[in-house]
Write a structure and sequence with these properties.
Distance between the termini: 45 Å
Number of domains: 2
Strand content: 5-15%
Number of strands: 12
CATH topology of the largest domain: Rossmann fold
CATH class of the largest domain: Alpha Beta
Length: 336
């Protein structure tokens, strides 16, 4: 049966959908699995043996009805038998319905629920991977794969290793990912810089990772850390970044996509929480990890995705976390 999985959220969400995709593809009744995602996350699926096709949906450029209608026609022409949408927006429900697939599955908390044929319970306290795998239930397909898998190609490895060598990273190193789409989810630039100095003083190299939008943040961290960290922000593809993370001793990151890439590459993770919370189900999965957050705050968590600004204007959840606290957890993680 031809199957489509809809996940048009951020990179981390797509990585956490991979066990669902992999479980589908590895079942004998499923003949193919296509994935509908946004252009910015599509490269994560390159070389993946369980992904038959990638359909890109630019939600910004094609947000008008003409773009949506054009995509609906493309999807209907594919003649899918099954559509599964972990993404819970009304637009995803509409796209699912437009395929005319006989079986359309999402969560009972999804917008436009009446457009699906099956709605499964959303395990609010579950990990996102486990939540997504529940969507297999109507098909009576058992989970065949519990760990997200990324598949960097030969060129990804070659480019990543060359980049490390060019920056003089020829020994053990720790990756820092100080960015996030949501400003309130970012620990302080000064904190990351002080942490970088402590790591360097301990004999490790520091590698800064991020996308184009994180270039300024990473440049400021590097400057405050004595210009010693290697700054790869905006220079690597998703899969090249995955290779760099795979070779690292550990990753320190805000609650963002690098956490889930590290999980897929089985690299130890130290994740920093502020406005969000581990109880939302987006913690590192199937890899060694530690979680850091300021306890006892009446204002936290304040949002499942974070936000542009702090609702109480203090950002105390991140401002009050010291580099010493983070460093102590990192040393413990490295020693496990």
């Amino acid at each position: 049966m031809k199957t489509l999985v809809i996940q048009t959220a951020f990179a981390g969400d797509l990585v956490l959908t991979l066990p669902l995709i992999q479980s589908l593809a590895r079942n004998e009744v499923i003949t193919s699995v296509d994935v509908l995602c946004i252009p910015g996350t599509a490269p994560l699926l390159e070389n993946h043996p369980d992904v038959s096709g990638i359909i890109k949906y630019d939600k910004q450029g094609d947000r008008l009805f003409t773009g949506l209608y054009r995509l609906m026609r493309v999807l209907r022409a594919k003649q899918y038998d099954i559509v599964i949408s972990p993404h819970r927006s009304f637009r995803s429900a509409l796209l699912s319905y437009a395929t005319n697939a006989r079986v359309r599955i999402s969560f009972d908390r999804s917008e436009g629920g009446m457009l699906y044929t099956h709605r499964e319970g959303y395990g609010k306290s579950w990990h996102e991977v486990a939540r997504n795998l529940v969507l297999l239930s109507p098909l009576k397909i058992p989970p065949r794969s519990l760990k997200p898998e990324l598949h960097p190609g030969e060129n990804d490895y070659k480019n990543a290793v060359e980049a490390l060598h060019q920056e003089g990273v020829n020994r053990k190193y720790v990756c820092l990912a100080p960015g996030s789409v949501w400003p309130t989810k970012r620990w302080t630039i000064e904190g990351f810089a002080e942490l970088a100095v402590k790591i360097q003083d301990d004999g490790y190299k520091v590698v800064l990772l991020g996308g184009k939008m994180d270039e300024d943040i990473c440049a400021r961290v590097r400057s405050l850390a004595g210009n010693k960290p290697a700054n790869f922000s905006g220079r690597l593809t998703w899969l090249e970044s995955a290779v760099v993370i795979k070779r690292a001793s550990a990753l320190v990151s805000n609650d963002s996509a690098p956490v889930h890439i590290a999980s897929a590459m089985e690299t130890p993770v130290l994740e920093i929480y502020g406005p969000t919370s581990p109880v939302f189900g987006f913690t590192p999965w199937k890899t060694r990890h530690r979680l850091v957050q300021l306890d006892g705050l009446s204002c936290a968590p304040c949002a499942i995705h974070g936000g542009r600004t702090c609702p109480i204007k203090s950002h105390i959840c991140m401002q009050s976390l010291s580099a010493g606290q983070i460093y102590a957890h990192l040393i413990a993680l490295l020693g496990e």
